[in-house]
Design brief:
The chain is of the alpha+beta class. It is built from 15 helices and 14 strands. It has a five-stranded mixed beta sheet with strand order 10-11-12-13-14.
């Protein structure tokens, strides 16, 4: 590996990271169309999908943060609009994601490995790849119900697209109150045999997500949903996946680029990640650097830019900028953990807390909820970061909340937060 290069000041590293994420670019002055959405998703590499709908579905928010108001229907069409779609659904580790269709060939090697069911292989380590419920479920099904997966695939072939509830060949659906023959599949997911079979076929690329009905997945044969895709050799695919991550991060440690733990774009086994990073350094795509205050070796994307950032955005907890909480702590001095899984009595800043980006700093935490019944965007809690003057936050935050409420087709904003900032925001 090449020798360590220059030292990047912390404020420069922060601007590089924000520029790589698209926050140095001004929002489009006119109508935002599919071309704008496509460019942002290509830049980020993927959008995380999550079922939480407190404000709106999480995959919509990163685009609003960077582009301002746009048609969510346009994004839906790009994701689930037939064979001319721009994005497809897949996952890596714990993240279900919407990924540019151009990246599909880069994932074929992983799909083929999953189809072989060699669950001991590094590339199929459940910590970074196939959900454990699939691994445990397929082990059980291969013993208890040999041939069952083929029956599910035949049903999808005949009837698809289908939901998991419609995909049981024998018509049997285990009820939530019935004993779970395999507790390792997880009670909260209620994964029945048909669901396990479908998710395995999905991992293997045999079926894909044709659409969603009330956000429930519809599975169909991949060849009926997506156009034919070329093959990319596994080693080159891994290199390109890490290039995508590097472009989207700007400057990052090896763990942030492709490490284990669920916070990288496309995690790889440790030895594989080390090899791929070394190859990209040799090729000149990554430049080894030091970042002030960061002990670990960092890598600068060769095309990274240090540009002024004058952003104003509310960030989803599932935004790619926030995936690695330790990285955000180092770059922004902002300690952030999602609160939706924290018991109410232990929450400090609220339930669904969005960091507020102003300029190139994270200056506040805003608890938000879309009250659709009363058509208002509710702010139960708002907290400025230590040392940040509250007076400088009020006007831009009020403007961003008003813009978000309008985009969500709500009639207004209701601030119920206490404290000086809450009162000032209520007045604004």
């Amino acid at each position: 590996m090449a020798a360590t290069g220059e030292t990047v000041p912390l404020d420069a590293a922060r601007r590089i990271a924000l520029t790589a994420q698209g926050f140095a670019d001004p929002r489009p002055p006119g109508r935002v169309d599919a071309r704008h959405l496509r460019r942002v998703v290509q830049r980020l590499g993927l959008l995380q999908v999550d079922t939480v709908n407190v404000v709106c579905r999480s995959h919509y928010l990163p685009l609003f943060a960077r582009l301002g108001p746009y048609s969510r229907t346009t994004l839906d069409r790009m994701c689930w609009g037939g064979r001319d779609r721009d994005l497809f659904e897949y996952f890596w580790g714990v993240k279900a994601s919407l990924i540019p269709l151009s990246s599909y060939p880069l994932l074929r090697w992983r799909m083929r490995a999953a189809e072989q069911q060699d669950w001991t292989a590094d590339d199929l380590d459940p910590d970074i790849s196939v959900p454990w419920a699939v691994v445990a479920g397929m082990r059980r099904l291969s013993i208890e119900r040999p041939g069952y997966v083929d029956d599910v695939l035949a049903l999808v072939t005949e009837r698809g697209p289908v939901t998991a509830g419609q995909a049981s060949p024998d018509g049997v659906r285990r009820k939530r109150t019935d004993p779970d023959p395999d507790p390792s599949t997880g009670e909260m997911w209620n994964w029945q045999d048909a669901k396990i079979a479908l998710e395995y076929l999905y991992c293997a690329g045999r079926v894909t997500i044709a659409g969603r009905r009330n956000f429930e997945r519809l599975y169909d044969l991949t060849e009926r949903v997506l156009p034919p895709q070329p093959e990319v050799e596994a080693d080159e695919a891994r290199r390109e996946l890490v290039r995508i991550a590097a472009r989207g991060l700007g400057v990052a440690t090896a763990r942030e680029l492709c490490g284990r733990g669920g916070t990288a774009h496309f995690p790889l086994p440790t030895a594989t990640a080390r090899q791929v990073i070394g190859e990209l350094v040799e090729a000149g795509d990554l430049v080894p650097v030091r970042v002030d205050g960061v002990r670990q070796q960092c890598y600068l994307w060769s095309g990274a830019e240090d540009r002024p950032v004058d952003a104003r955005a509310l960030l989803s907890p599932f935004d790619t900028l926030l995936w690695n909480r330790d990285r955000i702590h180092r770059l922004f001095d902002f300690f952030y953990r999602i609160s939706i899984y924290t018991p109410e009595a232990q929450r400090v800043h609220g339930y669904y807390v969005l960091p507020f980006l102003l300029g190139d700093r994270l200056v506040a935490r805003v608890d938000l909820k879309a009250d659709r019944k009363n058509s208002v965007l509710v702010v139960p809690t708002v907290t400025a970061e230590p040392g940040v003057p509250e007076a400088g936050i009020v006007e831009p935050l009020a403007a961003e909340l008003t813009l978000m409420a309008s985009w969500l087709e709500l009639d207004g904003v209701r601030v119920t937060a206490d404290g000086r900032l809450g009162k000032a925001l209520r007045t604004a």
